[in-house]
Design goal:
- The protein is of the alpha+beta class and 59 residues long.
- It has a single domain (3-57), classed as Winged helix-like DNA-binding domain superfamily/Winged helix DNA-binding domain (Arc Repressor Mutant, subunit A).
- Helix content is 56%, strand content 15%.
- It contains 3 helices and 2 strands; from the N terminus they run H-H-H-E-E.
- Helix 2 packs across helix 3.
- The longest helix has 13 residues, at 31-43.
Length: 59
């Protein structure tokens, strides 16, 4: 499973908008890897930000 997929799974499991720090706690992934995945997911329009600095998967 790629880092992007792991990040998305952690976000879905949280069931609410989460920050990169929360994803780090949920997934155990490195923060730098999470930040790179967030950047790619934003570019792919796979995640959205309903609240500043919090992200969730696009429905």
């Amino acid at each position: 499973m790629s880092v992007k997929e792991q990040v998305l799974e952690a976000m879905k499991a949280a069931g609410k908008p989460v920050s990169a720090g929360e994803v780090e706690q949920l997934s155990g992934l490195d923060r730098k890897e999470i930040d790179k995945a967030f950047k790619e997911l934003k570019k792919d329009e796979a995640i959205t930000s309903p609240v500043r600095c919090k992200w969730e998967p696009v429905q």
